[in-house]
Please model this.
Amino acid sequence: MAAMRIGSLTLTSNLFLSPLAGYTNLPFRLVVREIGGVGLCSTDLVNARSLLEKNPKAFKLIETRPADSPLAIQLFGSVPEEMRDAAQILEARGAAAVDINMGCPVRKVCHVGGGSAMMTESGKTAALVRGMVSAVKIPVTAKMRLGWDDQNITAPDLARALEDAGVAGIFVHGRTREQGFGGRVNLAGIRKVVEAVKQIPVIGNGDIITPQAAKKMFDDTGCAGVSIGRGAFYNPWIFQHTLHYLNGGVSVPASRLVSSLAPPDAVEPSFAERARVMCRHLDLMIEVFGELPGCRMFRKVAPWYSRRFGPCHEFNKRAVQISTRTEFHNVLEDYTRWRRQFLDDHGELLPRFRPPAMIASFMRDEPAVARREQIPVPKGPVEVW
Ligand SMILES: Cc1cc2nc3c(=O)[nH]c(=O)nc-3n(C[C@H](O)[C@H](O)[C@H](O)COP(=O)(O)O)c2cc1C
Model:
């Protein structure tokens, strides 16, 4: 698709990696960037005060390297001076943009006035933003939900107020806080935000799990870019495939599994390609966090890759126990052998073992219900953001 600008920043693509606390760390961002197609990646949300207090955990969250560029760092907090000073620290450390978390529905963030509580007090929030914008040269963006609940759809008004306060772009997840991750993403709601602002880009977000879903979000909302979270975690190829699809490339049906290395128009990367990228991801985790911590963290990552392997319990039950790289490679080797019983003569999964096609909530006819092919909300980190 297209290059785009956010304030002074020029991006080569209008596809974004959304912040996913506990997942969008340096190794994952590098994996996504190596595959290609992403314009701007975000870190997990980082507590502004923790940065000012020089908390090592906060600094680990913003660890980066030249290949991890351009990078937006997401801050949360509600004290204007802390947010301003933290933004200056990030600018000095080379961040390409600072994003403000206004969509976090978790009590511990909301009750101190950050996250989606910000959406209910737009005057106060605009003042906080103004302080940050005037303190740094890099673009300041905001990420929000549509509002607190269906009776309080505040995103269009808030977006307009934030534009006046100087934000360079708005990310909007098309659900309310009350919705959590249930129900459908409301494309008409995102469109209202697009229509509310004068000229800054609005980036739509929520449930994009296929190139077709990205196109529908662009078409139905008029957004300038789309941001992908969970869809990227289960399929780091999604940016490359979406770019290709939006540029007129042919897309194969989502259910088709290819056996060689994935060509750029294939929606499903082959098992060999998934395994290659998964191993690269583990190597980067070990490089950045050390072997034992990296392997421990990878225990929750590996099952995301295996979702599209076909029958995968034999893999998962051992992958969630690994402590070394060698152990992981043994698990993968044994699994690859075991998996052969599900393959045809060409090495492709027999049709009955193929995972179902993924369908975005807003591309279903029926109301979204918990279905196997729906994108899951990971356990664990959700409780802490
Ligand atoms: C595990 C998890 C962690 C998340 N962490 C953050 C976060 O740190 N900051 C934020 O603004 N949104 C966070 N989100 C919300 C996502 O950025 C995104 O808005 C949401 O998941 C919808 O997009 P998706 O359907 O593409 O995942 C998180 C979501 C999940 C599932």
In short: The mean pLDDT is 88. The beta strands are 4-6, 9-11, 15-17, 40-47, 71-76, 97-102, 140-147, 169-176, 202-205, 225-228. The CA atoms of residues 78 and 114 lie 5 Å apart. The pocket of flavin mononucleotide is lined by residues 18-22, 44-45, 74, 101, 103-104, 143, 173, 205-208, 228-231, 377-378, 381-382, 385 (CB under 6 Å).
